[in-house]
Amino acid sequence: MPAGLKDEGRLLAPLAGRYIESAPSGLLQPHIRCAWIHQLPDEIEGGITVVPDCCSDLIWTGGELCIVGPDRTAAFPDIPAGSRLLGVRFAPGRAGQWLRLPLSDIVGRTVALGDIAPGLAAEFEDRIAEAGSDDERIDLMLRAVDRAGTEKPAAAAMQFVLRRLDNAVGRRRSMIDDLTAELGISERSLRRRCHEVFGYGARTLDRILRFQRFLQQVRATTPCSLAWLAAEAGYADQAHMTREVRDMSGLTPAAVVRQFKGPLAVSFNTGAVRTPYLPRMEVEHVHDDGKDRSSIC
After folding, report:
1. Measured in whole angstroms, how far is the alpha carbon of residue 216 from the centre of its chain?
2. Among 70, 179, 252, 288, which residue has the fewest nearby CB atoms (within 10 Å)?
3. Domains along the chain?
4. Tens digit of pLDDT for each residue in 148-163?
5. What is the tens place of the pLDDT at every residue in 29-78?
6. Residues near 211 by beta carbon (within 8 Å), at least 6 away in sequence
7. How many CB atoms lie within 10 A of CB 220?
8. The three-state (H, E, C) secondary structure of the chain, written as one string
9. Taking a C-beta distance cutoff of 8 angstroms, is the pair 277, 27 a contact?
């Protein structure tokens, strides 16, 4: 069990400070889930929690470009209060072909882009540092992704696995058997290919997708009970949800609901920032970090 479970004072990352996401456009759309800007507050009580989402990010920390690999469980990064982070989030299963390496190599790791693609880092880091605004920096980061793009098509079989698991809310013990039969491969081959494309096997992918459905339900609805949430997200029962959510977030399901739905709940607004790659800001998460409050992908 992660050490951070003993401390539920941690705030889910998007609720800490000011977090803005924007949708990509054009040819990058199938490969990039979003670009984001995150301004952390000057004071953070208890730290923040980053939860697994099947994605990898290219981030700008103010001095260099880094790749943040996919996570299996909750991560508790030591990010200084007041930090301003910019990122481009790859869609699930897409980062590996851009990086030209198996994602299992960087699971749970943050790696300097210069260690993976030194030419790309040398070309873009100085330009990003000299850019006059965050919008320009995000645009340059997207251009870096576009520049390094590969003509190799996305692994169709693994995208099928992703869709199949994400849409199968009704849990069946035979899901992995069904996938191997439909793809005509062995369970060992399925595990190896999932590790290469997603960073982990199909069973871990399934757990993370289910956890993300739980978060979507919390954000989009007013849950009538934790048992209802468990059923809607696809957990076997409430106890199953409690174990999984604690592993994925370091929090109990009730604590997650309180963070989103309590007095400190996130607000959603529409922005109007435009760049060549980002036609419109889609969602903005804002958290008031005043002294009287009780409490990042």
Report:
1. 13
2. 288
3. 10-286 (1.10.10.60)
4. 765 555 578 899 999 9
5. 888 999 999 999 998 877 899 999 999 999 998 789 999 999 999 999 98
6. 51, 52, 233, 244, 245, 248, 249
7. 9
8. CCHHHHCCCCEEHHHCCEEEEECCCHHHCCCEEEEEEEECCCCCCCCEEECCCCCCEEEECCCCEEEECCCCCCECCCCCCCCEEEEEEECCCCHHHHHCCCHHHHCCCEEEHHHHCHHHHHHHHHHHHHCCCHHHHHHHHHHHHHHCCCCCCCCHHHHHHHHHHHHCCCCCCCHHHHHHHHHCCCHHHHHHHHHHHHCCCHHHHHHHHHHHHHHHHHHHCCCCCHHHHHHHHCCCCHHHHHHHHHHHHCCCHHHHHHHHHCCCCCEEECCCCCCCCCCCEEEEEECCCCCCCCCCC
9. no
Distance CA 112, CA 106 (A): 11
**Angle between helix 226-233 and 253-261 (nearest 10):** 100
Amino acid at 196: E
Are 131 and 140 in contact, with CB atoms under 8 Å apart? yes
CB burial readout 161-187, b (16+ within 10 A) else e: bbebbbebeeeeeebbeebbeebeeee
Quote the CA–CA distance of 73 and 94 in Å, as a whole number. 20
Q: How many residues does the chain have?
A: 297
Give CA–CA dist 227/218, Å, rounded: 13
pTM of the model: 0.82
Listed residue (71, 89, 119, 99) closest to 28, CA to CA: 89
Write down the pLDDT at residue 65. 96
- Angle ∠(141,109,16) on CA atoms, nearest 5: 70
What is d(CA 263, CA 259) in angstroms, rounded to the nearest whole number? 8
Pair of tokens at residue 93? 């299963």
